[in-house]
Specification:
heterodimer; A: 277 residues; mainly alpha; 10 helices; 73% helix; 0% strand; globular; B: 279 residues; alpha/beta; Rossmann fold; six-stranded mixed sheet; four-stranded antiparallel sheet; 22% strand
């Protein structure tokens, strides 16, 4: 007869337990990536495609007009992809729970909402690393553009863009939580709605005067302005970066508050019982 | 109707006496727009008992269980699990409970072992490998451990769902239609397992079901819901006697089809006074 093996459960309130729960969820997303080579390929495929397309366009423009200097286009594409991939990496993890009707199980387990957010953020970083490392290397090999040439400030750019992506993802995930998968499109499109205002491919000065303060209220706008400043003039205003990080803090807090609000609202409206289309 | 909230003592649900009960509910109400899904229900559940929530579609069973799980916030009233107010302090007791429902799934692309490993982590289980192996053996799913969850039959998925629900050896197990859409053999097997679990673990089980035979077999007590209200509450034998019926199914049909509440009240009074129930 088999001996009974009872579960050994520690204090559910401690940091160790919290890390265990976050780790369990991260493991769940890694299992998912591992379960399908197509999913793994997809993580690299789109950013690679983007980089190649814009790289060739830049080469063409540089040869024909000489106006595009220092890898501005390809640099913008790579940095924009950092924000987009961090947002999608977070959102897709969340959507996986909706698609698999697993969210009800998660939300009745001891997993806290902040632990769910932490696990999704960790997975977003992992997906980003899987996507961007080979693509950044390819940009150097194919087009001679070295993203690391931006110097130490790249780490700060990276942080601003990732945090912006997470804020957008948190907000869209909250809406999906409340309104169901009918609002799924928001996950894919929200970043693009802000694309013109983030001034990815042109300077803020190009925008009409009344639109410029709005553009500058986005953290990522400061990154793209900073990138152009470094590539064109080899200078960079660190104050802009501080401002961008401060904006990040505000948006992240607001996005997390909205996520919690929508979660609460979903519990009040019974939406968690009807997750799906 | 008996109001067993008196067992919680003078301090009500927030007192120490109430903490002894795995479930204590008072005036619990859930309103969705113009629809009252659950209408001021009150009950406590004794430790180690199996209680069935019976009722037709839309009677409020799933909503009640969802409020116990914290998936739905009550409009009014109070719901406590092991003394913790679920609306505010669910995380104090979440590791002591678990649930299974055909209305939720586990990730289909993950193998059974991967799913159980993830949930073991979420429930804070340290001896994951040993516990998963044990529970798989106990529920006869060892051969399924490395198969994708999405490739399993309905019966296999139910067993895997039950394995997930029993991973943390919960003191309170909530089950929503645990044998829905299963063949009689598999359903019977599941019932045996639940019965054995409740007995051996001393666990409290609350199950919502449409299956009267299942309820008769498993439940020490039946709470019948109709339009969100408790219309009966007692041991199955007491209900059978009160209605002068042979099976719970007959009782259920009588309750569902009646429109004479006076007769219902008379039936209960007959049991309480020991007189003959009305025909």
């Amino acid at each position: 007869m088999t001996a009974i093996v009872l579960p050994v459960i520690g204090d559910p309130g401690g940091m160790e337990a919290s890390l265990r729960r976050i780790g369990a969820l991260v493991r769940r997303y890694l299992y998912l990536i591992k379960s399908s080579w197509l999913r793994s390929l997809e993580i690299v495929y789109w950013p690679f495609l983007q980089m190649v397309m814009w790289g060739f366009l830049q080469r063409y423009l540089a040869n024909s007009t000489g106006a595009i200097a220092g890898g501005l286009l390809i640099g913008a594409v790579l940095l924009w992809d950092i924000q987009f991939r961090s947002q999608i990496g977070f959102s897709v993890g969340f959507l996986e729970e909706m698609w698999s009707r697993n969210l009800g199980q998660l939300l009745t387990s001891p997993l806290r909402p902040n632990e769910l957010v932490a696990a999704l953020s960790i997975m977003s970083l992992m997906r980003l690393a899987i996507a961007m490392v080979p693509v950044t290397a390819a940009a150097y090999l194919f087009f001679g553009f070295n993203l690391f040439g931006l110097g130490a400030v790249l780490a700060a750019f990276f942080a601003v863009l990732v945090l912006t992506g997470w804020a957008l993802a948190l907000f869209s995930s909250g809406i999906i939580l409340r309104y169901g998968l009918g609002a799924e499109e928001l996950s894919w499109s929200l970043g693009f709605i802000l694309l013109p205002l983030a001034c990815v491919y042109y300077p803020v000065a190009v925008l009409p005067g009344w639109l410029q303060p709005i553009a500058l209220a986005l953290p990522s706008t400061h990154v793209f302005e900073g990138m152009r400043s470094i590539l064109l003039h080899n200078t960079f205003d660190a104050g802009e970066l501080v401002w961008a990080l401060a904006l990040n803090a505000v948006y992240l807090l607001a996005a997390y508050a909205s996520f919690r609000y929508f979660l609460r609202s979903a519990r009040v409206n019974g939406a968690l019982l009807q997750l799906g289309e | 109707m008996r109001d067993n909230l008196a067992k919680c003592g003078s301090e009500g649900l927030s007192g120490e006496a109430a903490a002894a009960f795995p479930v204590a509910v008072r005036d619990l109400t859930k309103v969705y727009g113009a629809v009252t899904a659950v209408d001021r229900i009150s009950f406590v559940i004794e430790p180690g008992t199996t209680v069935a929530l019976l009722g037709g579609n839309g009677a409020g069973k799933t909503t009640t269980i969802s409020m116990l799980l914290g998936l739905v916030v009550p409009t009014a009233g109070e719901v406590r699990v092991f003394g913790a107010d679920v609306s505010r302090d669910r995380y104090q007791v979440a590791h002591r409970m678990n649930f299974q429902s055909p209305y939720v799934d586990m990730p289909m692309r993950l193998t059974v072992r991967q799913n159980l490993t993830v949930y073991a982590g979420l429930y804070g289980i340290a001896n994951v490998t040993e516990r998963v192996a044990y529970i798989a053996g106990d529920l006869q799913i060892t051969a399924l451990l490395d198969r994708r969850t999405g490739k399993l039959s309905a019966g296999q998925k139910t067993r895997v769902g039950l394995a997930k629900a029993l991973l943390n050896a919960p003191e309170l197990l909530l089950l929503d239609e645990p044998t829905a859409s299963l063949d009689p053999d598999t359903a019977d097997w599941i019932r045996q397992k639940l019965q054995a679990y409740g007995r051996e673990r001393g666990a409290t089980i609350l199950l919502a079901s449409h299956n009267m035979a299942e309820v008769e077999r498993l439940a020490h007590r039946v709470i019948v819901l109709e339009a969100g209200r408790i219309v009966e509450d007692g041991p199955p034998k007491q209900l059978l006697k009160a209605y002068g019926r042979q099976t719970l199914e007959e009782v259920f049909l009588q309750i569902a089809r009646r429109n004479d509440m006076g007769r219902h009240a008379a039936a209960i009074a007959a049991v309480e006074t020991g007189t003959e129930p009305p025909p």
